[in-house]
Write a structure and sequence with these properties.
This protein is of the alpha/beta class. It has two domains: 236 residues, Alpha-Beta Barrel (TIM Barrel); 114 residues, Beta Barrel (Lyase, Ornithine Decarboxylase, Chain A, domain 1). It has ten helices and 18 strands. Strands 1, 12, 13, 14, 15, 16, 17 and 18 form an eight-stranded mixed β-sheet that branches. A hairpin with an 8-residue loop joins strand 15 and strand 16. The radius of gyration is 22 Å and the shape is elongated.
């Protein structure tokens, strides 16, 4: 919560729920990543928050961009990034989208199976590909599933297949889970990557790059490691597993780049109880369908601020829609002031990432989450 955001909300008084992002925080985060991991190229994960102002700032600062679709590629290009600073990092792509990206000059593609390699070989001849491997995500608040990646042993065959198909077998990628608070979580994945490098080298294929993915945490309720802690732990693992053959590395911060730069202003629209002496239910004008999708399974617990200073009591926190799953915190109720009233504003911190892009277009008729970048 910066003074710039507080002043904006005080002076502008925007109507309805909204996200406010402070670009100075984004700038500071980018510089911290540069200092912490100077040997790694930064590929901002556009999906975290594709606001044009954020993309333009990062492009100006020299960032590269990890894109999940042709639409995101176009956003990065419009922000000033050249095609050689963009990767098509989604392992699930329509073949015509591969062709569209290649036509725009994109030459770096993620794959995780031979069928995806074949798409790239047909539509982007000679392009560089990196193969994503599975990670268990242990230690992450939002552990990723098996939807993306393959077993490390299979990655050898996928990259071998790419090489034989005329592509450049460029490297290996992985993701250790979103909001990963253990700086050592990258170690086992790097061990697997190094083994893939060695196996393919013995086959005459020299890989060049390891994509370390995202996972870098942002501050919610608990303390998190600093960028320097991540950088040192990862560098130690790279040197331990790769020895003198240090690969190129890239990182894909999304949440870690913009999460702490944003605050959502919300309004209490109802406070009720389901039975006498029962726990209080507090309903906001924003919920899972309006931008707080990451409260699913109560995975992310945001810091919530109120001007009220009464005793904090446990409350169920829910959204405004006519859907019974639109409840953010129920298994572990959220402490809110006992003197909280209908019409009060609450500020939800750490919401710069994965909020506007998760907001439904018109569920129940509610508009998408408004966004201001200052």
């Amino acid at each position: 919560m910066t003074d710039r955001i507080k002043n904006f909300l005080r002076d502008v008084r925007p109507e309805g729920p909204c996200l406010v992002v402070d670009l100075e925080v984004v700038r500071d985060n980018f510089e911290k990543f540069q200092r912490a991991m100077p040997e790694s190229r930064i590929f901002y994960a556009v999906k975290a928050n594709p606001a044009p102002e954020i993309l333009s700032l990062l492009a100006e600062m020299g960032s590269n961009f990890d894109c999940a679709s042709v639409q995101e590629i176009d956003m990065a290009l419009a922000a000033g990034a050249s095609a050689d600073r963009i990767s098509f990092g989604n392992t699930i792509k329509k073949e015509r989208d591969v062709a569209a990206a290649y036509k725009r000059g994109i030459n770096l593609f993620a794959v995780d199976c031979e069928a995806e390699v074949d798409k790239v070989a047909r539509q982007a001849p000679g392009a560089k590909v990196f193969c994503r491997i599975l990670c268990d995500g242990e230690g992450a608040e939002w552990a990723l599933s098996k939807k993306f990646g393959c077993e490390p042993g299979m990655a050898v065959d996928v990259l071998d297949h790419a090489h034989r198909a005329g592509l450049t077998a460029y490297g290996v990628s992985f993701h250790v889970g979103s909001q990963q608070k253990n700086p050592r979580a990258w170690d086992s994945a790097l061990a697997s990557a190094a083994e893939i490098f060695r196996t393919l080298f013995d086959r005459g294929i020299e890989l060049k790059m390891v994509n370390l993915g995202g996972g870098f945490a942002t501050k919610y309720l608990e303390e998190i490691p600093g960028e320097g802690e991540y950088g040192k732990a990862i560098d130690d693992s790279i040197r331990a597993h790769f020895g003198n053959r240090i690969p190129e590395t890239i990182i894909e911060p999304g949440r870690g780049m913009v999460g702490n730069a944003g605050v959502i202003k919300s309004e209490v629209i109802l406070i009720s109880q389901k039975a006498k002496d029962d726990i209080r239910w507090v309903y906001l004008d924003i919920g899972k369908f309006n931008g707080l999708a990451e409260t699913m399974d109560e995975a992310i617990r945001y810091a919530i601020e109120s001007d009220r200073n009464g005793e904090a009591v446990p409350c169920v926190l829910a959204g405004p829609t006519c859907d019974s799953v639109d409840v953010m915190y129920e298994k572990t109720p959220y402490p809110l002031p006992i003197n909280l009233e209908i019409g009060d504003e609450l500020l939800i911190a750490g919401t710069g990432a994965y909020t506007t892009t998760y907001s439904a277009v018109a569920f129940n008729g509610f508009p998408p989450l408004a966004s201001y970048v200052i």
